[in-house]
Amino acid sequence: MTLFTDFVQVTDATASSPVILHAPHGGRTIPPAHRGAFTASGAELEAEMDAMTDHFTDRLVAEVAAETGASAVINGLSRFVVDVERFPDDTEEMNAVGMGVLYTHGSRGQVLRDRARVDSDALLGFFGDYSSAIERLTEASLAQHGRAVIIDVHSFPRHPLPYELHADERRPELCVGFEEFHAGEALRGAVADAFDWLERVDNEPFHGAYVPLRFYRSDPRVQAVMLEIRRDVYMDEATVRADVSGLRALIDRVSRLCRSAADQ
User: What is the mean pLDDT of residues 56-82?
Assistant: First the structure.
């Protein structure tokens, strides 16, 4: 559909690499056709996107893909329009705070959008198309290499936001999210080697990593790890500006991880 092709960049390099980079939450775009469902002012939406966007992860993934020859999926839509990484059913824990696939609430628990005015058909269609794109890349990688490695790139603020369900957990410089079924010792070791300069904790304060539902907990050939990078490592949260040297260091280390994962 038009919404999908307009806002998502898909690079298929599965012929040469089993690695699929993923940046689902780096976009800030709210299409005019979907703005009317939001009850928040423009200024409030901008403030929410400052708080919730995984800033510069789209740029990071694009540069790493170009440097390493990995596949990539980069979402340009704001997560406030549709969150492509949520479970689309009642198993999604973020439904409890109005942040399932279609957000109704913001980072402080405030109402942002009237669900009755949301064009659910169009946005759930986008969600389906997005999921299918990653599934196709995964299938192609399995066919070509016998495995697929998804590196899911996110960021989080130094201090917890009110919506967070695990705000009491540690907030290291790098939260490494994974499930053991989809992350063997070799992949986890490659992450540790690539990011030996950062304080790392597994699955705190965010948990797991993105795996297309078709393969989730059923095909161990699909490996996945989530890199949740604390924002002060590479940017100024107050001004929402990148720290050039910090971002460059991350690009180099994620590139190192991609190459290591491709060679395993």
Answer: 98
pLDDT confidence tier of residue 1, bands split at 50, 70 and 90? very low
d(CA 231, CA 218): 33
Residue-level pLDDT at 5:
81
**C-alpha to C-alpha distance for 103 and 84, rounded to whole angstroms:** 11
64: confidence class by pLDDT, cuts 50, 70, 90: very high
> Whose CA is closest to 113, among 25, 34, 179, 51?
34
Burial class (CB in 10 A: 0-12, 13-18, 19+), 120: middle
Q: What dihedral angle (degrees, nearest 10) is formed by the CA atoms of 7, 54, 80, 239?
A: -110
In whole angstroms, give the CA distance from residue 30 to residue 43: 13
d(CA 12, CA 74): 12
Phi, psi of 223, deg, nearest 5: -100, 145
Is the pLDDT at 2 greater than 70, yes or no?
A: no
Q: Could you give the C-alpha distances from 196 to 56, 191, 201, in angstroms and in order? A: 22, 8, 12
- Cα gap 49→102, rounded to integer Å: 15
